[in-house]
Amino acid sequence: MTLSSVGLRYLSVRRQPAMAAPSNSSCVISGRMEPYAAVYILIFLVGMAGALVSLWAFVRGRATRKCMNVYLINLLTSDFLLMLALPVKIANDLGEGSVPPSLGIFHCQCSAVLIYINMYASITFLAFVSMNRYLQISQSSRLLHLQEPRFAGVMSAVVWLLVLFINVPNMAIPIRDHRPEGPFKCADLKTQLGQHWHLLSVFLGMMIFLNVSAILLLSNGLVLKQLWGRRHGGREQRASARQASVSIAGVTLAYVLCFVPYHAVRMPYTFTQTRIIDDCQLRRSLFVAKESTLLLAILHLCFDPVLYFYLSSSVRLRVTGVFSSKRSRTDIKDATAAGEEEECKIEAEP
User: Fold this and answer.
1) Which helix (H) or strand (E) holds 45?
2) pLDDT category, 12, cuts 50, 70, 90?
3) 175 forms bridges with which residues in the sheet?
4) How many CB atoms lie within 10 A of CB 9?
5) What is the pLDDT of residues 72-110, one digit of tens each?
6) Whole-angstrom Cα distance, residue 55 to residue 318?
7) What DSSP string runs through 216-246?
8) Environment class of 224 (CB within 10 Å of its CB; exposed 0-12, middle 13-18, buried 19+)
9) Cβ(131)–Cβ(219) under 8 Å?
10) What is the DSSP annotation of 265-329?
Protein backbone atom coordinates (compact mmCIF):
# COMPACT_ATOMS: atom_id res chain seq x y z
CA MET A 1 0.00 0.00 0.00
CA THR A 2 1.50 3.34 -1.05
CA LEU A 3 1.65 6.46 1.07
CA SER A 4 -0.75 8.28 -1.25
CA SER A 5 -3.38 5.52 -1.00
CA VAL A 6 -3.12 5.59 2.82
CA GLY A 7 -3.61 9.35 2.78
CA LEU A 8 -6.66 9.12 0.51
CA ARG A 9 -8.17 6.41 2.70
CA TYR A 10 -7.58 8.54 5.82
CA LEU A 11 -9.23 11.55 4.23
CA SER A 12 -12.25 9.49 3.15
CA VAL A 13 -12.70 8.21 6.71
CA ARG A 14 -12.43 11.71 8.18
CA ARG A 15 -14.88 13.16 5.66
CA GLN A 16 -17.47 10.43 5.91
CA PRO A 17 -19.21 11.66 9.12
CA ALA A 18 -19.41 15.22 7.80
CA MET A 19 -20.95 14.03 4.52
CA ALA A 20 -23.38 11.78 6.34
CA ALA A 21 -24.31 14.35 8.94
CA PRO A 22 -27.55 15.37 7.29
CA SER A 23 -28.89 11.83 7.39
CA ASN A 24 -30.98 10.67 10.32
CA SER A 25 -28.67 7.76 11.02
CA SER A 26 -25.47 9.74 11.61
CA CYS A 27 -26.80 13.04 13.00
CA VAL A 28 -28.99 12.17 15.96
CA ILE A 29 -30.87 15.27 17.09
CA SER A 30 -31.62 14.43 20.68
CA GLY A 31 -30.72 15.20 24.24
CA ARG A 32 -31.53 14.42 27.84
CA MET A 33 -35.21 15.28 28.14
CA GLU A 34 -35.73 14.09 31.72
CA PRO A 35 -34.89 17.50 33.30
CA TYR A 36 -37.37 19.20 30.98
CA ALA A 37 -40.02 16.61 31.83
CA ALA A 38 -39.48 17.21 35.57
CA VAL A 39 -40.08 20.94 35.14
CA TYR A 40 -43.11 20.25 32.94
CA ILE A 41 -44.59 18.11 35.72
CA LEU A 42 -44.19 20.99 38.16
CA ILE A 43 -45.71 23.46 35.68
CA PHE A 44 -48.61 21.08 35.05
CA LEU A 45 -49.39 20.68 38.76
CA VAL A 46 -49.18 24.40 39.55
CA GLY A 47 -51.04 25.39 36.39
CA MET A 48 -53.78 22.81 36.94
CA ALA A 49 -54.33 23.99 40.51
CA GLY A 50 -54.48 27.63 39.44
CA ALA A 51 -56.77 26.92 36.48
CA LEU A 52 -59.21 24.86 38.56
CA VAL A 53 -59.39 27.57 41.22
CA SER A 54 -59.96 30.19 38.51
CA LEU A 55 -62.68 28.09 36.87
CA TRP A 56 -64.38 27.59 40.23
CA ALA A 57 -64.20 31.33 40.92
CA PHE A 58 -65.62 32.25 37.51
CA VAL A 59 -68.50 29.77 37.88
CA ARG A 60 -69.35 30.41 41.54
CA GLY A 61 -68.74 34.12 41.31
CA ARG A 62 -71.24 34.52 38.46
CA ALA A 63 -68.89 36.90 36.71
CA THR A 64 -70.63 39.75 34.97
CA ARG A 65 -70.62 39.53 31.22
CA LYS A 66 -67.98 42.14 30.55
CA CYS A 67 -65.61 42.37 27.63
CA MET A 68 -62.63 41.65 29.89
CA ASN A 69 -64.24 38.53 31.36
CA VAL A 70 -64.99 37.17 27.89
CA TYR A 71 -61.30 37.34 26.96
CA LEU A 72 -60.18 35.91 30.31
CA ILE A 73 -62.57 32.95 30.07
CA ASN A 74 -61.30 32.18 26.56
CA LEU A 75 -57.73 32.40 27.86
CA LEU A 76 -58.66 29.94 30.61
CA THR A 77 -60.18 27.60 28.00
CA SER A 78 -56.91 27.74 26.10
CA ASP A 79 -55.02 26.82 29.27
CA PHE A 80 -57.14 23.70 29.74
CA LEU A 81 -56.32 22.65 26.17
CA LEU A 82 -52.63 22.89 27.03
CA MET A 83 -53.15 20.77 30.14
CA LEU A 84 -54.68 18.06 27.96
CA ALA A 85 -51.51 17.98 25.87
CA LEU A 86 -48.85 18.25 28.58
CA PRO A 87 -49.16 14.71 30.05
CA VAL A 88 -48.48 13.20 26.63
CA LYS A 89 -45.43 15.41 26.10
CA ILE A 90 -44.17 14.55 29.59
CA ALA A 91 -44.54 10.81 28.95
CA ASN A 92 -42.85 11.15 25.57
CA ASP A 93 -39.92 13.12 27.01
CA LEU A 94 -39.44 10.81 30.00
CA GLY A 95 -39.32 7.70 27.83
CA GLU A 96 -37.55 9.11 24.79
CA GLY A 97 -36.17 6.24 22.76
CA SER A 98 -38.10 3.61 24.73
CA VAL A 99 -41.74 4.70 24.45
CA PRO A 100 -44.00 2.87 22.00
CA PRO A 101 -43.87 4.44 18.52
CA SER A 102 -47.62 4.95 18.70
CA LEU A 103 -47.20 7.36 21.64
CA GLY A 104 -44.57 9.35 19.77
CA ILE A 105 -46.81 9.51 16.70
CA PHE A 106 -49.79 10.60 18.82
CA HIS A 107 -47.66 13.32 20.38
CA CYS A 108 -46.55 14.60 16.98
CA GLN A 109 -50.02 14.46 15.43
CA CYS A 110 -52.14 15.66 18.37
CA SER A 111 -50.58 16.89 21.61
CA ALA A 112 -47.78 18.92 19.99
CA VAL A 113 -50.36 20.63 17.77
CA LEU A 114 -52.54 21.40 20.81
CA ILE A 115 -49.54 23.12 22.41
CA TYR A 116 -49.24 25.48 19.44
CA ILE A 117 -53.00 26.08 19.34
CA ASN A 118 -52.80 27.10 23.00
CA MET A 119 -49.76 29.28 22.44
CA TYR A 120 -51.21 31.43 19.67
CA ALA A 121 -54.68 31.60 21.19
CA SER A 122 -53.12 32.69 24.49
CA ILE A 123 -50.92 35.44 23.09
CA THR A 124 -53.85 36.80 21.07
CA PHE A 125 -56.21 36.88 24.05
CA LEU A 126 -53.49 38.55 26.13
CA ALA A 127 -53.24 41.23 23.44
CA PHE A 128 -57.02 41.71 23.53
CA VAL A 129 -56.90 42.04 27.33
CA SER A 130 -54.25 44.76 27.03
CA MET A 131 -56.13 46.53 24.25
CA ASN A 132 -59.33 46.45 26.30
CA ARG A 133 -57.56 48.05 29.25
CA TYR A 134 -56.39 50.87 27.01
CA LEU A 135 -59.87 51.38 25.52
CA GLN A 136 -61.35 51.58 29.02
CA ILE A 137 -58.92 54.31 30.01
CA SER A 138 -59.09 56.26 26.74
CA GLN A 139 -62.93 56.33 26.84
CA SER A 140 -63.20 57.27 23.17
CA SER A 141 -66.86 57.46 22.13
CA ARG A 142 -65.96 56.18 18.66
CA LEU A 143 -64.51 52.98 20.12
CA LEU A 144 -67.18 52.11 22.67
CA HIS A 145 -68.51 49.28 20.49
CA LEU A 146 -65.11 47.57 20.82
CA GLN A 147 -65.78 47.13 24.56
CA GLU A 148 -69.12 45.38 24.16
CA PRO A 149 -69.27 41.72 25.26
CA ARG A 150 -70.84 40.77 21.94
CA PHE A 151 -67.86 42.19 20.06
CA ALA A 152 -65.50 40.32 22.41
CA GLY A 153 -67.40 37.09 21.72
CA VAL A 154 -67.15 37.58 17.95
CA MET A 155 -63.42 38.36 18.12
CA SER A 156 -62.83 35.32 20.35
CA ALA A 157 -64.59 33.10 17.80
CA VAL A 158 -62.44 34.57 15.03
CA VAL A 159 -59.28 33.84 17.03
CA TRP A 160 -60.25 30.20 17.58
CA LEU A 161 -61.17 29.72 13.91
CA LEU A 162 -57.86 31.26 12.82
CA VAL A 163 -55.59 29.20 15.06
CA LEU A 164 -57.53 26.02 14.26
CA PHE A 165 -57.31 26.70 10.52
CA ILE A 166 -53.54 27.15 10.78
CA ASN A 167 -52.79 24.17 13.03
CA VAL A 168 -55.43 21.46 12.53
CA PRO A 169 -54.07 20.48 9.07
CA ASN A 170 -50.88 19.45 10.86
CA MET A 171 -53.08 16.83 12.57
CA ALA A 172 -55.08 15.88 9.50
CA ILE A 173 -52.43 15.56 6.79
CA PRO A 174 -51.41 11.87 6.59
CA ILE A 175 -47.93 10.92 7.75
CA ARG A 176 -45.41 8.87 5.79
CA ASP A 177 -46.15 5.19 5.21
CA HIS A 178 -42.52 4.30 5.92
CA ARG A 179 -41.88 5.00 9.61
CA PRO A 180 -38.30 5.68 10.75
CA GLU A 181 -36.68 3.04 12.91
CA GLY A 182 -35.50 3.97 16.38
CA PRO A 183 -35.88 7.47 17.90
CA PHE A 184 -37.49 9.99 15.57
CA LYS A 185 -38.59 13.60 15.50
CA CYS A 186 -41.97 14.83 14.33
CA ALA A 187 -40.50 16.19 11.10
CA ASP A 188 -39.35 12.65 10.18
CA LEU A 189 -43.00 11.56 9.96
CA LYS A 190 -44.19 14.28 7.62
CA THR A 191 -44.82 13.86 3.92
CA GLN A 192 -43.74 16.59 1.54
CA LEU A 193 -47.20 18.18 1.81
CA GLY A 194 -47.01 17.95 5.59
CA GLN A 195 -43.59 19.62 5.62
CA HIS A 196 -44.83 22.44 3.40
CA TRP A 197 -47.90 23.07 5.56
CA HIS A 198 -45.79 22.91 8.71
CA LEU A 199 -43.48 25.58 7.30
CA LEU A 200 -46.50 27.70 6.34
CA SER A 201 -48.06 27.31 9.80
CA VAL A 202 -44.80 28.37 11.45
CA PHE A 203 -44.64 31.45 9.21
CA LEU A 204 -48.28 32.36 9.94
CA GLY A 205 -47.68 31.81 13.65
CA MET A 206 -44.75 34.22 13.51
CA MET A 207 -46.98 36.81 11.80
CA ILE A 208 -49.58 36.41 14.55
CA PHE A 209 -46.90 36.76 17.22
CA LEU A 210 -45.37 39.90 15.72
CA ASN A 211 -48.72 41.63 15.21
CA VAL A 212 -50.22 40.81 18.61
CA SER A 213 -46.92 41.69 20.31
CA ALA A 214 -47.08 45.13 18.73
CA ILE A 215 -50.69 45.53 19.94
CA LEU A 216 -49.89 44.32 23.46
CA LEU A 217 -46.73 46.37 23.96
CA LEU A 218 -48.25 49.51 22.45
CA SER A 219 -51.47 49.20 24.48
CA ASN A 220 -49.63 48.56 27.74
CA GLY A 221 -47.22 51.40 27.03
CA LEU A 222 -50.09 53.84 26.45
CA VAL A 223 -51.88 52.67 29.60
CA LEU A 224 -48.73 53.12 31.69
CA LYS A 225 -48.32 56.60 30.21
CA GLN A 226 -51.88 57.50 31.25
CA LEU A 227 -51.36 56.12 34.75
CA TRP A 228 -48.03 57.93 35.11
CA GLY A 229 -49.85 61.19 34.44
CA ARG A 230 -52.03 60.58 37.51
CA ARG A 231 -49.18 60.39 39.97
CA HIS A 232 -50.01 63.92 41.18
CA GLY A 233 -53.66 63.08 41.93
CA GLY A 234 -55.28 62.30 45.25
CA ARG A 235 -54.02 59.65 47.64
CA GLU A 236 -56.59 57.01 46.68
CA GLN A 237 -56.13 57.74 42.99
CA ARG A 238 -52.35 57.38 43.29
CA ALA A 239 -52.72 54.05 45.12
CA SER A 240 -55.13 52.66 42.52
CA ALA A 241 -52.97 53.89 39.66
CA ARG A 242 -49.88 52.33 41.27
CA GLN A 243 -51.62 48.96 41.67
CA ALA A 244 -52.83 49.05 38.06
CA SER A 245 -49.34 49.98 36.85
CA VAL A 246 -47.77 47.04 38.70
CA SER A 247 -50.27 44.56 37.23
CA ILE A 248 -49.80 45.89 33.68
CA ALA A 249 -46.01 45.89 33.98
CA GLY A 250 -46.20 42.33 35.32
CA VAL A 251 -48.30 41.18 32.36
CA THR A 252 -45.82 42.75 29.95
CA LEU A 253 -42.79 41.23 31.66
CA ALA A 254 -44.38 37.76 31.79
CA TYR A 255 -45.31 37.98 28.11
CA VAL A 256 -41.78 38.94 27.06
CA LEU A 257 -40.19 36.27 29.28
CA CYS A 258 -42.47 33.48 28.06
CA PHE A 259 -42.92 34.10 24.35
CA VAL A 260 -40.12 36.25 22.94
CA PRO A 261 -37.22 33.75 23.43
CA TYR A 262 -39.18 30.93 21.79
CA HIS A 263 -40.06 32.96 18.71
CA ALA A 264 -36.46 34.13 18.39
CA VAL A 265 -35.48 30.47 17.97
CA ARG A 266 -38.47 28.95 16.17
CA MET A 267 -37.75 29.99 12.57
CA PRO A 268 -34.07 28.89 12.65
CA TYR A 269 -35.12 25.59 14.23
CA THR A 270 -37.78 25.07 11.56
CA PHE A 271 -35.06 25.51 8.94
CA THR A 272 -33.27 22.54 10.49
CA GLN A 273 -36.43 20.45 10.09
CA THR A 274 -36.67 21.31 6.40
CA ARG A 275 -32.87 20.83 5.99
CA ILE A 276 -32.32 24.44 4.93
CA ILE A 277 -29.86 24.39 7.84
CA ASP A 278 -27.94 21.14 7.44
CA ASP A 279 -24.99 21.47 9.80
CA CYS A 280 -25.31 18.71 12.40
CA GLN A 281 -23.85 20.61 15.35
CA LEU A 282 -25.98 23.67 14.63
CA ARG A 283 -29.08 21.50 14.35
CA ARG A 284 -28.35 19.98 17.76
CA SER A 285 -27.80 23.41 19.33
CA LEU A 286 -31.03 24.76 17.89
CA PHE A 287 -32.93 21.71 19.15
CA VAL A 288 -31.72 22.36 22.71
CA ALA A 289 -32.56 26.06 22.33
CA LYS A 290 -36.04 25.22 21.03
CA GLU A 291 -36.80 22.84 23.90
CA SER A 292 -35.51 25.33 26.50
CA THR A 293 -37.51 28.25 25.13
CA LEU A 294 -40.62 26.09 24.64
CA LEU A 295 -40.47 25.36 28.36
CA LEU A 296 -40.49 29.12 29.01
CA ALA A 297 -43.47 29.52 26.68
CA ILE A 298 -45.45 26.85 28.54
CA LEU A 299 -44.55 28.53 31.83
CA HIS A 300 -47.31 31.06 31.12
CA LEU A 301 -49.67 28.37 32.44
CA CYS A 302 -48.48 29.34 35.93
CA PHE A 303 -48.75 33.11 35.33
CA ASP A 304 -52.28 33.17 33.93
CA PRO A 305 -54.07 32.44 37.26
CA VAL A 306 -52.35 35.51 38.72
CA LEU A 307 -53.70 37.50 35.78
CA TYR A 308 -57.24 36.26 36.46
CA PHE A 309 -56.89 37.26 40.10
CA TYR A 310 -55.85 40.84 39.35
CA LEU A 311 -58.15 41.51 36.39
CA SER A 312 -61.37 39.75 37.47
CA SER A 313 -63.16 40.98 40.58
CA SER A 314 -65.20 37.75 40.82
CA VAL A 315 -62.04 35.62 40.95
CA ARG A 316 -60.46 37.98 43.45
CA LEU A 317 -63.54 37.92 45.69
CA ARG A 318 -63.87 34.14 45.70
CA VAL A 319 -60.18 33.43 46.29
CA THR A 320 -59.80 35.94 49.11
CA GLY A 321 -63.09 34.74 50.61
CA VAL A 322 -61.73 31.21 50.97
CA PHE A 323 -58.86 32.39 53.19
CA SER A 324 -60.93 34.77 55.31
CA SER A 325 -63.22 34.26 58.27
CA LYS A 326 -66.98 34.26 57.84
CA ARG A 327 -67.24 37.66 59.51
CA SER A 328 -64.74 39.30 57.18
CA ARG A 329 -66.24 37.95 53.96
CA THR A 330 -68.80 40.73 53.91
CA ASP A 331 -66.00 43.26 54.34
CA ILE A 332 -64.07 41.65 51.49
CA LYS A 333 -67.14 41.75 49.27
CA ASP A 334 -67.69 45.43 50.08
CA ALA A 335 -64.01 46.18 49.50
CA THR A 336 -64.04 44.38 46.19
CA ALA A 337 -67.15 46.26 45.07
CA ALA A 338 -65.56 49.53 46.15
CA GLY A 339 -62.38 48.62 44.31
CA GLU A 340 -64.39 47.82 41.21
CA GLU A 341 -66.13 51.20 41.40
CA GLU A 342 -62.80 52.93 41.92
CA GLU A 343 -61.31 51.06 38.98
CA CYS A 344 -64.20 52.20 36.77
CA LYS A 345 -63.74 55.71 38.09
CA ILE A 346 -60.06 55.69 37.23
CA GLU A 347 -60.73 54.28 33.79
CA ALA A 348 -63.41 56.87 33.08
CA GLU A 349 -61.23 59.85 33.91
CA PRO A 350 -59.61 61.54 30.88
Assistant:
1) helix 34-60
2) very low
3) 190
4) 11
5) 999 999 999 999 999 999 998 887 666 777 888 899 899
6) 11
7) HHHHHHHHHHHHHTTTTS-HHHHHHHHHHHH
8) middle
9) yes
10) HHHHHHHHHTTSS--HHHHHHHHHHHHHHHHHHHTHHHHHHHHHHHH-HHHHHHHHHHTS-HHHH
Closest to 315 measured CA to CA, from 122, 31, 51, 83:
51
Torsion sign across C-alpha atoms 320, 74, 217, 268: positive
Q: Is the pLDDT of residue 275 over 50?
A: yes
Residue 318's identity, in one-letter code, is: R
Q: What's the full length of the chain, in residues?
A: 350
* Residues 74, 122: Cα–Cα separation, whole Å: 8
- What is the per-residue pLDDT for 41? 96
Question: pLDDT for 260-273, tens place per residue?
Answer: 999 999 999 988 88
DSSP-assigned states of every residue in 81-136 = HHHHHHHHHHHHHHTTTTS-HHHHHHIIIIIHHHHHHHHHHHHHHHHHHHHHHHHH
User: In angstroms, what is the C-alpha Rg of the chain?
Assistant: 25
Please compute the mean of the pLDDT values over residues 300-321 and round it to a whole number: 86
Number of Cβ atoms within 10 Å of the Cβ of 122: 26
Query: Which amino acid type is present at position 172?
Result: A
| Beta-ladder partners of 190 | 175
Is residue 317 very low, low, confident or very high in pLDDT (cuts 50, 70, 90)? confident
pLDDT digits (tens, 9 = 90+) for 26-69: 676 666 788 899 999 999 999 999 999 999 988 886 656 688 88
Cβ pair 85, 112 in contact under 8 A: yes
Answer yes or no: CATH 1.20.1070.10 is held by domain 31-348.
Answer: yes
CA distance 223 to 67: 17
pLDDT at 239 over 80: no
28/284 Cα distance (integer angstroms)? 8
